[in-house]
Design brief:
There is one protein chain. It is globular, with a radius of gyration of 20 Å. About 5% of the residues have low confidence. The chain has a single domain, classed as Na+/H+ antiporter like fold, CATH 1.20.1530. The protein has 15 helices and no strands. With about 400 residues, it is mainly α. It starts with a helix and ends in a 7-residue tail after the last helix.
């Protein structure tokens, strides 16, 4: 009974939703105590990362915990590229990559169109806020709308990981800390991590821990020292882990009737980390969604419209174009499914909040922009209702 309740909680990502809800309520009832806890130093300034990277709860969630979350997302994408997967042969990945481009350019175009229409030039710096997708929330909604094993889930994962990578790059290039400018030379460490992981696979190393603690740590250090966000560290390593011969679907090792998780390294990695990551999403939501309700302004609507309309139009338009010129949508996806996928990708929330925090220095504009990111959570019920209205068939 207890296991059934826990499975239900995790199935619908209630820890994440609970963390977001608690953060919003807490930040509006007692903002001082909320921000004190989030920003309180856990190790002091003696830690090697120094003052530029204070070791607080927010840092632990975003720079350490999310490495594992992105790693599991990378695992699902890797398996989708195996025989039988939604993205196999690799040519099928071209369409979602087109969608990724549309999912970045569409929101930027809508954002600038809004600023031109309203004359609100003071918010033009925030164009990068609606470019990224909140993978955790989008993944949850996609599973509700499409079912666990629908190819649209793999499509959305690839698109979301890619546009989050682009979003983090935008932060480094356009919103970087002038005291800590990007140092791309350190990305050679990331390349070295990939080469090491490849060599380990060739040597027949099947335990996932050497990959996480060796190339994974090296990749993390490379991104950190390059002054880029290290959350994507395992995305460069996981694809080199020994994999099964074919894709058996999302979380196949946890399905009913399973006799234990698969012996391959990829599934062993996911089996070990999936539960703590699902539970840890509570902390991620708590650390990132603490937005005090502020006055709604031009930045609010520019961000919200960029996420809702820009993402939908951009992803649908670019992916549909790719489909028409010969780079087909994955089998099981049609234009109705593609449209709903574009809507779901408009869930910016925590990632958009993160970008808004570095895009503006004016507290008023920053608060209004964060309100737009917070409002994007309302896209979730809209996407679910749209899926029902369009009679999207779920894949179990």
């Amino acid at each position: 009974m207890h296991k059934k309740v826990m499975d239900t909680l995790l199935e619908f990502s209630l820890p994440l939703i609970g963390g977001v809800f608690l953060a919003v309520v807490w930040a509006n009832i007692d903002p001082d105590s909320y921000h004190h806890l989030m920003e309180m130093s856990l190790l002091g300034n003696w830690f090697p990362l120094g003052e530029s990277h204070p070791i607080n709860f927010h840092w632990v969630m975003n720079d350490l915990f999310m490495v594992l979350f992105f790693g599991i997302a990378a695992k699902e994408i890797t398996e989708s590229c195996l025989p039988g997967g939604a993205l196999n042969p690799m040519r099928k990945a071209i369409n979602p990559l087109f969608g990724t481009l549309g999912g970045v350019l569409g929101p930027v175009a809508v954002y600038f169109a809004y600023t031109a229409w309203t004359g609100a030039d003071e918010i033009s710096r925030g164009w990068g806020i609606p470019t990224a997708t909140d993978i955790a929330l989008a993944w949850l909604v996609a599973k509700i709308v499409f079912g666990k094993s629908h190819p649209a889930v793999s499509f959305l994962l690839l698109l979301a990981v890619a546009d989050d990578g682009i979003g983090l790059g935008i932060i480094a290039v356009f919103y970087g800390d002038p005291n800590n400018p990007a140092a791309p030379g350190f990305l050679l460490l990331v390349a070295g991590a990939m080469a090491l992981a490849f060599a380990m696979r060739k040597k027949g190393i099947n335990n996932f821990w050497p990959y996480v603690l060796g190339p994974g740590v090296l990749s993390w250090l490379g991104l950190m020292m390059a002054h880029l966000h290290p959350a994507l560290a395992l995305v460069f390593v996981v694809p080199f882990m020994p994999a099964p011969l074919s894709d058996e679907g999302l979380f196949a090792e946890d399905g009913e009737g399973s006799v234990g998780h698969k012996a391959d390294t990829l599934n062993s990695f996911e089996h070990f980390f999936k539960f703590p990551v699902d539970i840890g999403l509570f902390g991620f939501g708590l650390a990132n969604a603490g937005v005090a309700f502020s006055s709604v302004g031009h930045a609010t609507w520019a961000v919200f419209f960029g996420l809702l309309f820009g993402k939908t139009i951009g992803i649908f338009g670019f992916s549909a174009f790719a489909h028409m010129i010969g780079f087909s949508l994955p089998k099981g996806m049609d234009f109705k499914v593609l449209m709903v996928t574009g809507v779901i990708a408009g869930l910016g929330l925590t990632v958009a909040l993160f970008v808004a925090g570095v895009a503006f220095t004016d507290p008023g504009i920053e608060g209004a922009a964060k309100m737009g990111a917070l409002l994007s959570a309302g896209i979730a019920p809209f996407a679910i209702m749209l899926g029902v209205a369009l009679r999207i068939k779920k894949a179990r």
